[in-house]
Design a protein that fits this description.
209 residues, alpha/beta, Rossmann fold, Arc Repressor Mutant, subunit A, 2 domains, 10 helices, 5 strands, 13% strand
């Protein structure tokens, strides 16, 4: 069963910082999809896994930096990403801003800052991505599926589409966390997807047909 629909790729060349981020994410609305310690490893992860959001250290001890990873993400697998940096060099910041990041976190940081930045990034990305897409239609979605989505599952899917995390869905629909997780798992199975990003991309395409 999926423990969280919001999967994070951490790209950080300092293992202690990477593990610290993973520890901050424990028991939150987010889960760690993978940790990459250099750019090459990050490229491999992006080609084989489907995270929903990435945390990119700008200055990586490798042949490419986090900004080049961001450019790759924008071109091949659009998702929100936030930069992790201890630098304020103007030239670097201009390069970084040109990639349209969902946020910046300056080292050192704390758990609350990290979680708040991630939640805002996911929510804003979902809203911006869906600005020019018609409202979701259960009928349109089910026309493309052999196993139709139920009305309750459609409610869950709409909230995922809006960038809500599991806890926010629980609060809005007044249902238990295990119930949300079961519905999310069913939705992913019926759509033949493995992550929030894949599911949103698929149903957006259905709406634009």
């Amino acid at each position: 069963m999926f423990t969280s629909p919001i999967k994070i790729l951490i790209v950080e060349d300092e293992p202690l910082i990477a593990e610290g981020i993973a520890l901050h994410l424990k028991n939150s609305a987010f889960s760690v999809s993978a940790i990459a310690y250099d750019a090459d490893e990050a490229f491999q992860v992006l080609q084989t896994k489907t995270p929903d959001i990435a945390i990119l250290d700008i200055n990586l001890d490798s042949n490419k930096d986090g900004i080049e990873l961001a450019e790759y993400i924008n071109k091949t697998c659009p998702m929100p990403f936030i930069y992790l940096t201890s630098y304020s060099d103007k030239a670097i910041m201009e390069r970084a801003k040109a990639t349209s990041p969902a946020g910046f976190i300056v080292k050192p940081f704390n758990k609350n800052t990290l979680l708040a930045t991630l939640e805002i990034a996911v929510s804003n990305f979902a809203q911006q991505s869906n600005n020019h897409v018609p409202q979701l239609s259960l009928g349109k979605i089910n026309k493309n599926l052999s196993d139709p989505i139920s009305e309750r599952e459609f409610e869950i899917l709409q909230l995922l589409y809006e960038g809500k995390n599991n806890q926010e869905i629980c609060d809005q629909l007044f249902i238990a966390m295990n119930t949300v997780k079961r519905h999310v798992t069913n939705v992913y199975f019926k759509l033949d997807t493995k992550s929030r990003t894949e599911a949103i991309t698929l149903i957006r395409n259905y709406m634009l047909k």
